[in-house]
Amino acid sequence: MNEANKHVRNGMGAVRPFIYGRLDLLDFVKHVFGAVELERNKVDKGFHVQAQIGDSVVVLFGNGASVCRRRAPRRIVYVADVDATYERAIAAGASSLGKPTERPFQERTASVKDAFGEHLVPRDIYGQGREVTRRP
User: Fold this and answer.
1) Over its length of 136 residues, how does the chain's per-residue pLDDT go in tens digits?
2) DSSP character string of the chain
3) How wide is the angle at C-alpha 86 spanned by C-alphas 80 and 87, nearest 5°?
């Protein structure tokens, strides 16, 4: 991983679609697109997987809950400073869906909805020797 993308999980794919689906979603994406699993996190009754398809990375969330079929897609955008990005988004007219916060999976995240209704999730990775810049 080079210095320019140290804030990006797995070192590549700064912008990632977050796709919700059933438990067979990962098998489908592997079979159809040749996806390679980069990272797996267990969630209640399912999975949260970072997968590489060609030179891109997608986030797959699969479980048996009906909520997965109703959720709007999100776009994860890895940035160097989540707090500053969040503040710029709000100043530009986005609605806050979640203020910057540290998450248990070594990321600091926020969530906004832009003027076009898109759900965007700025993230920064920390841990493994990297500290988060905390804001008051």
Assistant:
1) 566 667 676 667 677 888 777 778 888 788 877 889 998 888 888 888 889 888 888 888 887 765 555 566 677 787 888 898 899 889 988 899 999 998 877 788 898 887 767 777 777 766 433 343 333 3
2) --GGGTTSGGG--SEEEEEEE-TTHHHHHHHHH--EEEEEEEETTEEEEEEEETTEEEEEEEES-THHHHPPPEEEEE-S-HHHHHHHHHHTTPEEEEEEEE-TTSEEEEEEE-TTS-EEEEEEE-BTTB------
3) 110
What are 26's two structure tokens? 């990962």
